[in-house]
Tc1-like transposase DDE domain-containing protein (Gemmata algarum), 164 residues
Amino acid sequence: MTRRKIEYWVMPPEQDAEFVACMEDVLETYAAAYDPKHPVLCMDEQPVQLLKETRVPIAATKEHGKRVDYEYERNGTASIFVFAEPLSGFRQATARAHRTTADWAIEVARMLDGRYAACEYVTWVCDNLNTHTKGAFYEAFDPAVAGSTSGGSGSATPRSTAVG
C-alpha cells in the first residue's frame, strides 16, 4: 500500500486586504496567553447525512467479520456543532436536526450560559457564515436574553479560508 501525503493550504486572493486583516485578527487571538477568566472558544459546524441500512447485516462469526451491504438509504440530515478551547484542551460536540441561525445561537448560548457563565469575557472564533452573527441571538431569544447572551467578542476567519 502506498503512503499518500495530502497537504491542505489556503492561498489568499491577490491583494485582498480584508482577508489579511481577518486572518491577522484570528492569529493574534490564538497567540494570546491562556486566561481562564477570558477564554478563547472556537466553534465550527458540519452538516452530515444520516444513513439507514437497506438490508439486515450478517453477524460476525469465527470465520468472518460482520458483513454489511454497501447499499444504503438516505435518512435525513443533521448538523454537528463543535466547540473547542484549544489552550485548555476542552472540546464538545453536539448534534442538532437543523443548521439555522437560531440553532447556532442556541448552541453558543448554551456554552456561554453553562461552562463559561463565570467568565468575565469570552472571545469566540468561528467561520464567516451568514448564520454566525450577533443578530442570531435576537432571532432565537427575547431581546433581554439576547442582549446578555451575545456579549463577548468574536473573530471571524476570512471568507476564503477553510479554518474556523
